[in-house]
Input
Amino acid sequence: MQSEGLQIRRALISAHDKSGIVDIARALCAAGAQIIATGKTASTLREAGLEVIPVEKISGSPEAFRGRMKTLSFPVFSGILYRRGDKEDLEDLKRLNVPPIDCVVVNFYPFEKAAARPGISKADLIEEVDIGGPALVRAAAKNSPDVLVLTSPWQYEKVIAELNGAGHVSAATVHECAAQAWEKVASYDFAISAELGFKNKLSLRYGENPHQRAYLEFDPNGPIAWQTPSGEPLTKNELSYNNILDITSAYSLLSDLVKLWPSSTSAVIVKHNNPCGVCVVPSGLTAAQCLAFTTAWDGDPVSAFGGVVVFSAPIEDDTVKQLLDNFLMSRTHH
Output
């Protein structure tokens, strides 16, 4: 990439959302770029009077499987990914007769919009999972600042202004668009995972901070029962991310105690991922579990407020009374 900005020799355009696509293509052409386009995008640009190279001419393969295969090809990705200024890469580019691609304009199939459609079948939703688009965007963003990647129509205006004014795109804009591309791919993959991924999950009250939403994915066969067999949550109120950390840490510590003293009764209290109190007593003692809890609580009763208590055995009635008197009331107050 030259210091004054990125000169675009060739741009690949494949957009599901055609908003502004003619305008950005015209600006690229005016700045001296050739336009490569796919399917309906190519038709839209030709109807606007623009000269377009069909992607099949670059890929060497026809569009197939009702659009599932268009851009995924060695020549297309080589033109994006080769390292500018690298002697060996430039020799490969020349030997393979691959045309450089300095700009990728792509937006994805609207998976989230489809997922929100009432009654949509899984088979139909699967068809809205974009494969080539995110792959192109990742390749282009990886080769920033030598490749410009545009993932949304709202980015076009700034790029058009720079192309019209200077004939190139500034380094700052190229970097900014690459950063936005990584965010776009991540959010798109997250949306797909939320709909089609692991379904054993719980909604959490909040994430690491109260303004953040979060959920927990878990193994239903794991050692901690995060919900009942019928799928109901174990607690009346939603857990928070910090609750999850505390429960997990308390369970891990308790597991070590059980391994060390398998015939004893143990209690562990954790707050903000730190142990506040730990106690191990012989199981043969009277009210052993209650003693383990009260002793652990006395270890640091101030820090224990609002914390998590984990026991090595099912909770007994006397222990429940101690929890109500000493722990849950303080948690409610907290």
